[in-house]
Amino acid sequence: MTDLKSKALQLTLVLASALAGAFAALAMGWPIPFLLGSLVATAVLALTFAARTGGPVFFPKTLREVFIAVIGTMIGTTFTSEVLSMVPTLAVTLCAMMGFVVLAQASNYIIFHYLGGYDRPTSFYAAMPGGLIEAVEMGTKAGGDVETLSIQHFVRIVLVILIVPLLFLVVTGEVVGSAASQTLEKGPSEWRDWLMVATIAPVGLWIGKASRLPAAPLLGPLVLTAILQSSGAIDLGGPPALLNLAQLIVGASLGAQFAKTTPRRLLSALALGFVSVMATLAIASGLALMLGHFISMSFQTLLISFAPGGVTEMSLIALSLGVSPVLVSTHHLFRILFTVGLTGLLFKRLGNGSSKT
């Protein structure tokens, strides 16, 4: 009972910090404030808590999965016949994604191995531009350092979430997210929308896990909602308050994970991660500019599609920007699958992964 009370108090503290951080970010005009504000506030809390207790602050995985399922459901509501008309364009952009993965993998390996001094397997799998769980598992089997891989990939996702909206703010002068009053709502939010999301999200989550889909908590509800919405079975809007709540929970879940490292090691990982992310975003920007001359996709959509963040988080940014999150999530799922397949094949051919050279 004491342990249960302790966990409940810790979760309450995390959510209160996330809420305070979100509203502070909103007041300061930050991009996607409910995601970034809650992330920063809970990261500070997690580091402080770990310094005093020696352990991580409690945050249930199930709570994150439930709200990722909510996000997947809301992304599914954006699916239209226009997405199907983009299939020829996707053939071009997904081929370009293969080139992006190769270039990003090579440049990141150089950064982590020669600048960071990581051993070969750790450098190789830290360089992967996608697939956090897969990178850690594969890298550990190849002789890499599990903690370094975990921290470096987590830092990659967080930095992309922080940097991409700020880049849009600097370049376009527009604030990304709910601070700019951008929402998914098609009309006045009704209780039926909330009820449908509450019904579809858990069913889609179950389908995704049962089908063993990649990014199952996001993709299961997304596909289910897309099918129902495009067939006319439902006409689901996107309540903005629910989107803000989902961003807050996802941000809090990311921030809580900062307790898994020391401040000194985190600073080192952030420095290397910043160099890596900026190099990767430079490649992504170059490809987005080039592709923009040949296909009918905006630079914003292309950059978000190529930016090496998490599927859920980049889809949230797409929702906030008003670009097609279905197209964005399609690119990110392909990026992760291709990255995992390519690195698994390449590392076997490049030699023994246990080498420290």
Secondary-structure map:
Blueprint: H1 2-27, H2 33-53, H3 61-76, H4 81-84, H5 87-115, H6 120-126, H7 132-141, H8 146-172, H9 191-210, H10 216-230, H11 240-256, H12 263-291, H13 299-306, H14 311-321, H15 325-350
Helix pairs in contact: 1-2, 1-11, 2-11, 3-9, 3-10, 3-11, 3-14, 5-6, 5-12, 5-15, 6-7, 6-8, 7-8, 8-12, 9-10, 12-13, 13-14, 13-15, 14-15
Q: How many strand units? A: 0
What would you call the shape?
globular
- What is Rg? 20 Å
User: Which spans have pLDDT < 50 for at least 5 consecutive residues?
Assistant: 178-185, 352-357
What is the helix content? over 70%
**What's the average pLDDT?**
82
Computed structural class: mainly alpha
- First CA to last CA: what distance? 51 Å
Task: Provide an overview of this structure.
- Helices cover 75% and strands 0% of the residues.
- With 357 residues, the protein is mostly helical.
- Helix 2 packs parallel to helix 11, helix 12 crosses helix 13 (299-306) and helix 13 (299-306) packs parallel to helix 15 (325-350).
